[in-house]
Protein 1
Amino acid sequence: MSADRAVLGLDVGGTTTKSLLVDVGGRVLHQQHRATALGTDPVATLADEVDRLTALAAARGVTVVGAGVVTPGMIDEGTGTVHYASNLGWRDLPLRAALAERLDLPVTTGHDVRAAGLAERLLGAARGLDDVLLVTIGTGIAAALVSAGRPVTGGTGAAGEFGHAPIRPGGEPCPCGQRGCLEVYASGAGVARRYAARTGQQRSAAGVVGRLDDDPAAREVWAEATSALADALVTATLLLDPAVVVLGGGLTAAAGDLLDPVRAGLAAGLTWRPPPPVHLTALGSSAGCLGAAALAVQHAGLGDLLAGWSSADRSGVVVG
Amino acid sequence: MSADRAVLGLDVGGTTTKSLLVDVGGRVLHQQHRATALGTDPVATLADEVDRLTALAAARGVTVVGAGVVTPGMIDEGTGTVHYASNLGWRDLPLRAALAERLDLPVTTGHDVRAAGLAERLLGAARGLDDVLLVTIGTGIAAALVSAGRPVTGGTGAAGEFGHAPIRPGGEPCPCGQRGCLEVYASGAGVARRYAARTGQQRSAAGVVGRLDDDPAAREVWAEATSALADALVTATLLLDPAVVVLGGGLTAAAGDLLDPVRAGLAAGLTWRPPPPVHLTALGSSAGCLGAAALAVQHAGLGDLLAGWSSADRSGVVVG
């Protein structure tokens, strides 16, 4: 019975750490979201969390056969060292080796957005497709690329840092020190900051989207966000020719208000070729930890079982 | 003796068709450049050329064991059908199948810029590297990407159409119908057109580069070209994280006048990460047909021999 064996998937973000207990057949048994609070010894804190979730599983008669932990940043996928993760304050942390040393459980690590891309391919909006561009739009913006079924990690593990592409050359300053970065215009933080600069009012990006019907400033800021995103997708499409573009992250809550102008802008910006389909994530904010769990299943030598994940019951997952 | 067995590599361009006879060990035995004149039956013309070169080889006691033919355009690498090649006027031409039908020789086909990328990895400026971005800057601009040792072809074979990335959004019109494309500013045709628009004088891009010391208009147009190219490379580097960027195509004749500002602009546009090294092609305009020959060697089941190509005598190759 696959229900007796499960894996843990942890998605460690700058703000929230999401954890899933998933049986090896893909059924979600337990889900939790917590504020990330890693203290002075992040590896010990994460190992404790894995131990706690393993004990919780055992109490339910479930044996945990592995854990996958994914993080943002520049990651050497070969060694599992996180070279730089600004949101977590990590530099050259040998995460995989350090976790393996502390845990009795087989543990693997990966990149949060690339793990989300894996999950979208297994059971989400890119199911069955081999050439995928996933762009997550939250506080910041990052991308995961899949080419011919394999994740593109880059020469130093830093592929996908799409948020700082100079989409509006010479444009508004970015906290990174450059000007005109995609994130300046199209990230959640960027939308909120640009709306505040124009109106003096502090609102979240979701709050700005909620005012599109009645507030010209909200419409203007949002139109500039979706236009910048569409231009960025034109460039990525020309370069990479994805079979599908999947938008993930918090801003996908805007649904059609995001999707419609981005689709229109992408189609308008392409010559000679049809635009690839653009879809919203089917997995919401759980994509990263589902991908982390899938990595754990692969690491446990049970990768063949992932073919069945798309038909598993995920009613336990809160999408959003 | 590998010298007794050879392959043909043909690089069919909009203006020039370049052909090489290369022994399977990588030694160039014969090279020719001719104006492309394919007539009404391009497959028959190309097959005749292959037959002629095969006879020429036979007269020298060399047996041709395969041919590789590479072209620009959107190509299905699986079937060898060229879906669209604007410079050749082709649409949905089943090139590989049609050539195979006419020739007794094993024949394979491919994409010109991706073949150049293969050659640069085998024996050029990207030797031994698995994550490569090759950008060819000639009349137009195209790119070849290699990720973890494998060419990125995209979902429809159209990856690498970098010349039409909207690098200067809302900028000058491009013959493609869009505005602000990379090619508008940084291609040979773009540099010549922008110089003529500013001065009323017709000069080639090379002519513009030749005037940098004395002509402020030339300096301005060239600075805008290298700045647009650097910005495009910033975006591509953030997205793909190449271990090396190789610049190929006719504009590489500008040497340091191209390389120095592009390197400086790429470094200045990146935050948090060092720029990848940028090199000029080591193979010049022969990169495409060397890659085509390498494809033929692979197709003949002799791919193991390619490891020896980097040390072969290529003194017969005119680089330029």
Note: Chain B has a mean pLDDT of 93.
Protein 2
Amino acid sequence: MAAVLRGSRYLVGRCCRNVDFAFVSTRSMASKTQVGFVGLGNMGNPMAKNLIKHGYPVIATDVFPESCKELQELGAQIVDNPAEVADKADRIITMLPSSPNVIDVYTGPNGILKKVKKGSLLIDSSTIDPAVSKDMAAAAEKMGAVFMDAPVSGGVGAASSGKLTFMVGGAEEEFTAAKELLSCMGANVVYCGQVGTGQAAKICNNMLLAIGMIGTSETMNLGIRLGLDPKLLAKILNMSSGRCWSSDTYNPVPGVMEGVPSGNNYQGGFGTQLMAKDLGLAQNTATNTKTPVPLGSLAHQIYRMMCARGYATKDFSSVFQFLREEEGAQ
Amino acid sequence: MAAVLRGSRYLVGRCCRNVDFAFVSTRSMASKTQVGFVGLGNMGNPMAKNLIKHGYPVIATDVFPESCKELQELGAQIVDNPAEVADKADRIITMLPSSPNVIDVYTGPNGILKKVKKGSLLIDSSTIDPAVSKDMAAAAEKMGAVFMDAPVSGGVGAASSGKLTFMVGGAEEEFTAAKELLSCMGANVVYCGQVGTGQAAKICNNMLLAIGMIGTSETMNLGIRLGLDPKLLAKILNMSSGRCWSSDTYNPVPGVMEGVPSGNNYQGGFGTQLMAKDLGLAQNTATNTKTPVPLGSLAHQIYRMMCARGYATKDFSSVFQFLREEEGAQ
Amino acid sequence: MAAVLRGSRYLVGRCCRNVDFAFVSTRSMASKTQVGFVGLGNMGNPMAKNLIKHGYPVIATDVFPESCKELQELGAQIVDNPAEVADKADRIITMLPSSPNVIDVYTGPNGILKKVKKGSLLIDSSTIDPAVSKDMAAAAEKMGAVFMDAPVSGGVGAASSGKLTFMVGGAEEEFTAAKELLSCMGANVVYCGQVGTGQAAKICNNMLLAIGMIGTSETMNLGIRLGLDPKLLAKILNMSSGRCWSSDTYNPVPGVMEGVPSGNNYQGGFGTQLMAKDLGLAQNTATNTKTPVPLGSLAHQIYRMMCARGYATKDFSSVFQFLREEEGAQ
Amino acid sequence: MAAVLRGSRYLVGRCCRNVDFAFVSTRSMASKTQVGFVGLGNMGNPMAKNLIKHGYPVIATDVFPESCKELQELGAQIVDNPAEVADKADRIITMLPSSPNVIDVYTGPNGILKKVKKGSLLIDSSTIDPAVSKDMAAAAEKMGAVFMDAPVSGGVGAASSGKLTFMVGGAEEEFTAAKELLSCMGANVVYCGQVGTGQAAKICNNMLLAIGMIGTSETMNLGIRLGLDPKLLAKILNMSSGRCWSSDTYNPVPGVMEGVPSGNNYQGGFGTQLMAKDLGLAQNTATNTKTPVPLGSLAHQIYRMMCARGYATKDFSSVFQFLREEEGAQ
């Protein structure tokens, strides 16, 4: 019956006109059949584990064989490359570092699309350029498969505890199928629109996050130098129009809040170089769409300068430290 | 008895060493004696009205006689200049456009300090450079009077409804006395620390507000151009780490929220030129304290460019409109 | 004999290991044999004319047939597409608006590489991403051809008078062959290094040019508002360390210099949208190489904002006008 | 006769209406009578020496007595404070670190204006806010004296060799008198206009200089990372529209030029903190005149960040080093 639903669904699917219905029925939804997983890094590994916890047989691969061991011990089947994953699973999740990796994993010589089954559901949770997501979706469609972008917000901790937020772009009719799997790994699964809008939402959020974090750091630093107590200043901002997530939930000033990286010498959290990467994506999409983003652009440059000055692996809230006067500096 | 308390308080008052206790008793606190008010503009006028509503006899002045008429009809006594106000009231509130006006009203030829009574409480609610507040406090102290800075957040609407927030700087022992009056005009009265910290808190909040507003506008514009629905994008940001007051309470995109200036062609609200003024103060204090504020500084420049391009009197959320492509532009 | 020289040259050519020497001799250098030209727009048209003036038979194409008429009347042979050009000429120059056009003209279904002869010299004078230049060079090498990037500085006037500057990247052994043709169209032909460095030099120059122009405009505007006479200020800058091409050769303030766009309501010259495009390329290469370019990035954003506000087709020195206060603005 | 000329000159002096002609004749111009000098720091000391070399008897003072020793040995008379200088000399030059020092030296309890003679010529070579220059001029005028601002460009080396450039603001009729003295210390003495325009010219030049230097550093760094040889890139820029003083005269990349601080680990030259100070002045004047200076403002912030990160005393061309990737950084 799922097959019927899926088949009928394609009748309205604007971008799926080449799909051969005879093959659609091969993708099983209701039962917990195998799910493929490509990319078992810091994020992918706990995500795949959560699929196993929810009872899904997982068939996985990674370019680094050692990354696969832990999952193998938990019962996952490990294969040599993405094409073999696609040969055995008709629902596949990919979690990769950047656009070139995604292009290779989907369209490379041993890529998913080499052996993808018609009707397969391909979900990419990497954070990449939305233009690449659109390219992958078009390539998948030619093979009769469906591609969705579903980048996450939340770090390794949220990946482990299954509390990620997924922002999903792609054919709306596929959203229920995608949500079934993503719900095993995340607390929120939000449908954003056509392919690429998941990436767009992720990129937009992180650009505003970076602006808010640098802005909060500048503001707290200025206030402290003007004689304000940091906790009091944070309290005032948080009851006023200066309030933002960086001021009330992840304050960058050591001692203002408990349990955030600023209280732990900016270790853990979301690294400066990862933020710089996301801001680079935001900049690229802004340039391509001729959209002025003056503060987003300057935020990108500031995180880039921080990477050049040794802050690459510190949490992105360390911009407070970067802007403060060094001890001994004039 | 209030006099006793006030006298004993001075024993610990670091900056009040020249006060002649014999004169302290002349300022009455418990009873509703006359309160002076200087500056009856868009903000000062409704503030003074609220004092009258709360039963305080008001003695007021303004450089524009016509600004005084309404208050006079409500029973206020109108005098010629600030010195005459100081001659008749030992608690005075000032609400003026900028630093030079404050300097003139306090230290000019017909200024408050020409006739101020010893022990008087002088509260300045103008938004000015904290360095000027400190200068006024020092000048007041020489005359045996107490100066506090108490700038407000909230616009004309909040002034009319008595819902302003006051951020107060000055001797902590005076805060209770100041709060008695300020509570008639505001919903929140927050003690911030030594003289100038009220201004510092106000300036810091508005700098972060400007950064958040421009950041939100850039982000919403970018997301829309990438194919996201504006309401959906706002919803995603507001449940994520991009959340800020400008995204969840005062969204700059027409149609996303009700009852904000973006829904009314950016009329009303907080004018771009007023924001530019506050950002100029933030820039000055940052320069004077050698504090880097890269985003705050760029925000200042953007609002300055907007003023040059005809946005001076539009609400500051019109930066969304400024960044969007003009119809017909390439 | 030229063929011999060319053949021997390849013995040291690091990146030309697949070339079949038997075919190298087919490219003629000393005699004025046919030269192909793809892209007959505002720049390409006068450039191709200069080749004809220097006695080269030209075989050309453009996506817009009407662009070819003038050249045809001058004796050029017009063909249908780039592949046909490559079928008939072993030296080809391309002059196209942007990276996607270049990719299509070289690697598309009717692209040059479909019919390119081994040993052909392909010179691209478009201003594009250096990474695309490298891709084209690699694709050309696979076909036994040599690709060089040779973007120009100088506008339509310099193209007409043969006074362009070419910045050339590619195998050094080919530079003499490239210079033979480029010298017909330009006054300076500069060898920059490996493939892509011509683009890099062009992009770097224009980024610094944009920074200098905006900086000069801000500075002149500030000086004027501080009471300085604009001509005097320009003179002082030009004898001091503030001197730059924008201050001493192309001053953006109307009335300071003769014969520049600022004296002609910013008509002619180098359009704001073209500068915005080049700054977008600079931003992309900076992002890809993780290079901080804070002023270059802000310059990009300012030209982007100007495009959004109706300045797209005005000369890029109109940033002086953009930053000045509008008449009637506050 | 000089006195006659000076007296008649005042008949057209718009801002000199309070001058008592009877006293004007007391200032001697043609003969080498005593010249006062206040501020014997790194710049003031060699400047005063050059006056002595030119045969002027110098009477000097400095807040640090040890700064006066060298000059005393050369025959200068050392007195206790600026008032005493003014008591004995009717031509005085001041060279001080910042606005507050200037205010104190002129209007403080032992300031010049306490004992200034009518008709005295007071020349301030400090780099300060032009608004302060105007205030000093107004204060001097009340005492019947003439104040001119004459900030310098050129560093300690130029001060020692008498090769400074002076930018002079003030009554045009006084310029000849000022030039007589300034020519002993500088190679160029430029009249800029009314009081404050000397400062304006200096501030404008240095703002554009800072923009050019950071822009050159970004550009050179980007080009190098794109594979260009730094010397070749500098050569290309210098023959193109990217040319500026920082690229052709003071290149910030080690090895590109001889005899500049970049070749000496950025020692000597013009310190980053001094540039940050001048940019702070530019920012203040821009804020006060409501002039948008986006690049100037960001340049200020970058130099401010550099000061916070340990670059305060390095030459301002070290921004190239600041923007480059640290060894070992990602």
Note: Strands of chain D lie at 35-38, 58-61, 77-78, 91-94, 121-124, 146-149, 152-153, 164-169, 186-193.
